[in-house]
Amino acid sequence: MNEAIRADIVRVIKPDNEHAILPVAQAVEMAYSLNLDLVEIAANADPPVCKIMDHGKYLFEKKKKEKEAKKKQHVIVLKELRFRPQTDDHDYEFKKRHAEGFLKDGNKVKATVQFKGRDIIYSDQGKKLLDRLAKDLEDLGKIETPAKLEGKRMSMVVTPAKGPGS
Q: Strand 9-13 relative to strand 19-23: parallel, antiparallel, unpaired?
């Protein structure tokens, strides 16, 4: 910006979008006479391209656009539900309703069956439980990662079928 520009000659884009090739000193003087700044846009061009603009206003507008873009984006969060192999029907329904809410909000759901001690002998029950959950949630989401056993945990990931609020 301004005196920090190292090149001898630059291509200047004026506020009225006219182009001119000028020495840096003359371009900086022109920018100061308009109460603006000379900002280097493309340093690798031959000659480097600089634009006469209000740098503070430019930074403010850029920050404002980034903030607006951030408002419109939806971050997908991974929500986890934990089950045991002998999870009761009422508990299953309760957790299933939570999973439905998470999927409707546009979040992913990771359903995990935790095996403790000798519970690992009931891995078939854990698989049935996750398959049942996948079948119950198939209208709201699709399976991203099918049920698989990793150590003493069997887990599955379900992603929402549509965006949030659908």
A: antiparallel
What are the tens digits of pLDDT across the range 123-148? 899 999 999 999 999 898 899 989 99
The pair of structure tokens assigned to 160 is 């929402």
Task: For domain 2-69, give the CATH superfamily.
Answer: Translation initiation factor 3 (IF-3), N-terminal domain (3.10.20.80)
Q: Is 5 helix (H, G, I), strand (E, B) or coil?
A: coil
Instruction: Kindly state the DSSP code that residue 73 receives in the 8-state scheme.
Output: -
CA atoms of 166 and 163, how far apart (whole Å): 6
Q: Name residue, tokens 């209000």.
A: 54
CB-facing half-sphere around the CA of 140: CA atoms within 13 A: 22
Amino acid at 15: P
Helix axes 89-104, 123-136, angle to 10 degrees: 50
Q: Which residue has the tokens 């992913």?
A: 108
